[in-house]
Every structure is written in C-alpha cells, then in structure tokens.
Amino acid sequence: MGSGSTAIAALKGNRRYLGYEIEAHYVRLAEKRIRQFILEFKSPSLLDLLGE
Question: HSE (CB half, 13 Å, CA atoms) of 23?
Fold first, then answer.
C-alpha cells in the first residue's frame, strides 16, 4: 500500500484498487492521503466511499 499513490492513481482513472500493508504507519498515511484526495476531488461517487 505504501503511501497510497497507486490507490490515488486508480481513483483518478476511475478504477478499483486493493491495498495491502503490514506496517500500520503506512496504512494510516495512505488512508489520510486517499481521504484528502477524495475530499479535494469532491466526486459524489467517491464521497460515498467515505460514508459522507
């Protein structure tokens, strides 16, 4: 999962992604970056992913 860059690229391309990470620090980092991207992008379908 790393820092979430691949997940964000997938979202930009309207694709699905599956992330896996062992280190909790990187999970939190990726979640933060993905959430920030979704909120900035303001796509209704992506906001549904956040439950907002």
Answer: 8
Q: Which two tokens stand for residue 3?
A: 């820092």
Q: Quick count: other Cβ atoms within 10 Å of Cβ 46? A: 16
CB 22, CB 11: distance < 8 Å:
no
Per the structure, the count of domains in the chain is 1
- The pLDDT tens digits for 1-52 are 788 999 999 988 888 899 999 999 999 999 999 989 988 886 667 767 766 5
Q: How far, in Å, are 2, 29, 31 from residue 21 at the CA level?
A: 7, 11, 11
Range of the domain at 40: 5-50
